[in-house]
Amino acid sequence: MCRPAVSLLAAVLLALSGAGASAGELAGVAGTSGEVGSPPLRVVSMNLCTDQLALLLAAPGQLRALSHLASDESVSVLSARARALPRNHGLAEEILRLDPDLVIAGTYTTRATVNLLRRLGLRVAEFAPARNFADIRENLTRMGALLHREAQARALTEAFDRELARLSADKGGARRPVLGSYAANSYTTGGGTLEAEIVTAAGFRHLGTELGLSGATRLPLESLIVANPDYVMSWRRWTATPARSGEILTHPALQKWFGPERRLWSDDRYWICGAPFTVEAVTALAAAVPGDGS
């Protein structure tokens, strides 16, 4: 089920590509945003998820640097675009040399660096990880306001909602099989998470939610077999780079109980960060079980 999930993303980016102001034009747009003052012109991002939101919304020349993960094709949907920009590793010395007028970070981004930058008087905006589709909309809106790119944020949000509505209409009254995720080191995910919302939107019931789990937590293989979901979903990245932590995904008991027809393999780049391309995770998952989960 690791198809090239770019349809919505490519269409919206194409639509926006001719609509953006240049960095020079941005300098004279004060007062057009919900954010007070002139648009930031030297933006640095320190987090994979803020990297990708900024890449989707920023005007040409507005971004000075992204985190080193943004250009890693194993975790970043927008890695090709990110490679055109300098990278940082979350070190205060790196950020200060770039002389940013806005630093964007995640709430779990290197705390020592974030705290130091604030003490030195730099403007730092933190974004919490998206736990649901509503958080994606909120983060898009906020990033658009920070960058003075509200029109672009609205366009992305509207396209995201249109695609979700289409997928919901396509499912109709189909049976909703149970799907459980299983990752390296026996980790699964419970309710109140972005994964749970994606799985539900794709037409499945989410095992972690039904078991009363919350957040990311370990699920013994024996418990997974007893729960016996219709499908088990794992991340293809763990098979591409073998490690001891991923050996559980090829355990003989797992392979015997859940045959190939019950194993789904996802491209976790579309699941790691909540963004407009998250809808492509829904699309790919819904298409993975024709006539059942879609």
Automatic annotation (TrEMBL):
<protein>
    <submittedName>
        <fullName>ABC transporter substrate-binding protein</fullName>
    </submittedName>
</protein>
<dbReference type="Pfam" id="PF01497">
    <property type="entry name" value="Peripla_BP_2"/>
</dbReference>
<feature type="domain" description="Fe/B12 periplasmic-binding">
    <location>
        <begin position="42"/>
        <end position="293"/>
    </location>
</feature>
<keyword id="KW-0732">Signal</keyword>
<feature type="signal peptide">
    <location>
        <begin position="1"/>
        <end position="23"/>
    </location>
</feature>
<dbReference type="InterPro" id="IPR002491">
    <property type="entry name" value="ABC_transptr_periplasmic_BD"/>
</dbReference>
<dbReference type="InterPro" id="IPR050902">
    <property type="entry name" value="ABC_Transporter_SBP"/>
</dbReference>
